[in-house]
Amino acid sequence: GSAWKMEGALARFCRQHLAATIDAGVQQLLTGLPGTEPDLPAHAVQSIDWAHPTAGELGWPPPRPSDRHRELAARREALTARCVALLGDRPQLQERFQALLEVAQRYAIIRERQARQLTLGWPLLRRCALRIGQALHARGVIEAAEDVCFLTRAELDTRSPLHELVARRRATWERRRRLLAPLSIGRPPRLLARELLAVVDAVRTTEPAPRDAIVGQPASPGRATGPVRVVHGPGDFDRFQPGEVLVARATAPAWTPLFARAAAVVTDGGTLAAHASLVAREYGIPAVVATGDATARLDDGQVVTVDGGAGTVQLPR
Fold it and tell me: Which terminus of the chain has fewer CB atoms gathered within 10 Å of its CB, N or C?
């Protein structure tokens, strides 16, 4: 929860002291960082839910090597040098900028590594769960090993068939997965809510578009136009074409290869430190997150313009 706060502190400084002379978003200072190159390890997941196979199980190939990360790093270094030079006659502000930049970059790297390594044990945990499922299947308790994901620990000792119970729980799971997730659960403390809104406003490079636009958080700078492709899961991956705008409820590490083909990314949920935000920056494509209902408002083939600096998705007139 610290990465977006550090980014906000840097954004507020840049808006106050550099915005008049620097025509660039603060997020460009946080891209192309060492150790943040996009990859697809075997433990990359579609969801932290064990019911989903990992990228290694699905045999998905890693992203192809690209010069994009080096280009972003070079752009970041040039922008950093320019900012430092502009503050050269104000040494205290220059020192403050460098301190804010250092901590924001450090947290950005930590956040991205944490997102990747969180599921390091998933392949082993999945094998353990499926081994139990195979034993239950052999006893006729469940119809398939994967059904074990819909049982409680106490139910693993039963020898009675649980086919109907699993079917009901799976149906509930499928139904709830189709619901639009709320952007927050409960009422966040007022101080936290105000702080988050202040960070989002500080990161915006331009004012939001007219009221008919979809508005979210400006997660990765840039502007791109392309046809929409709503992606609900891996079953839609093969339909996604280069140059399309990836629209999803949320993305996960196993979705990384899609970013190499996407013109832009739009998600219903997320924050400035969400997976979609981080990976979009490392591919240098615009991203808008926390729109609330973009997957419900946009249709496949609809041409939209995504402004990752303003945090808006403009619909055709």
Answer: C
For 111-166, the pLDDT digits (tens) are: 888 888 899 999 999 999 999 999 999 999 999 999 999 999 999 999 899 999 99
- Strands 264-267 vs 287-289: parallel, antiparallel or unpaired: parallel
Please indicate whether residue 52 is annotated as part of the active site.
no
Contacts of 152 (CB under 8 A, 6+ apart): none
Residues counted in the chain: 317
pLDDT tens readout for residues 216-253: 999 898 899 999 999 998 889 999 999 999 999 999 88
**What's the burial of 207, exposed, middle or buried (CB within 10 Å: 0-12/13-18/19+)?**
exposed
Predicted local distance difference test score (pLDDT) of residue 192:
63
Q: Taking the mean position of all CA atoms in its chain, how far away is CA 125?
A: 24
- What is the C-alpha separation between 27 and 85, in angstroms, rounded? 19
Q: What is the dihedral of CA 269, 274, 276, 281, to 10 degrees?
A: 140
Contact indicator for 281, 76 with CB cutoff of 8 Å: no
